[in-house]
Amino acid sequence: MQGNTDGNEWYKDVNPEKLPDIYKRIAKEIGIYNTLCFAVKFQGLYAYFPKLDDILRSIRDEKIRQEFTGANYKELASKYRLTEVWIREIVSKKIIESDQVSIFDNKPNDSNKSFDSNESN
């Protein structure tokens, strides 16, 4: 536990069944040692772990857009276990984004004058 064991492996003597319920649940997933490291680092704090759905969906959608060739709706639907309609919806966002023009992309040329009131005509 990064300096907290003083060279001893006392954590091996910890009985997971004597830990609070939340630690038991964590220990089942990541092991007792990692749970104790986690507890030392975050003990006393209230922690909320939001669902990963949004970030995972975003990653999946970006992969679909990257793999889209223009005509592989069915293949992508099968690969990602989505409907073809949903693949079209995901891909259409890429098309819309790529067709948008930014007002910041164009650099002013000499014929465009500043609207600064201190500038003389």
Total helices: the number is 5
CA-CA gap between termini = 72 Å
Mean pLDDT: 80
Structural class: mainly alpha
Shape type:
elongated
Give a short account of the largest sheet.
Answer: none
Uncertain runs are none
User: What is the tally of beta strands?
Assistant: 0
Q: Can you tell me the number of structural domains?
A: 2
What series of H and E elements makes up the topology?
Answer: HHHHH
Rg, please? 28 Å
Helix content: 40-55%
Which band does the percent of strand residues land in? under 5%
Explain briefly what this protein structure is.
By secondary structure, this protein is an all-alpha fold. The protein folds into two domains: 1-49, no CATH class; 53-99, Arc Repressor Mutant, subunit A.
Structure description:
The protein has 121 residues and is mostly helical. The chain folds into two domains: 1-49, no CATH class; 53-99, Arc Repressor Mutant, subunit A (Orthogonal Bundle), CATH 1.10.10. It has five helices and no strands. It is elongated, with a radius of gyration of 28 Å.
Write the layout of secondary structure elements.
Blueprint: H1 21-30, H2 32-42, H3 53-67, H4 73-80, H5 84-99
Helix pairs in contact: 1-2, 4-5
Keywords:
121 residues; mainly alpha; Arc Repressor Mutant, subunit A; 2 domains; 5 helices; elongated
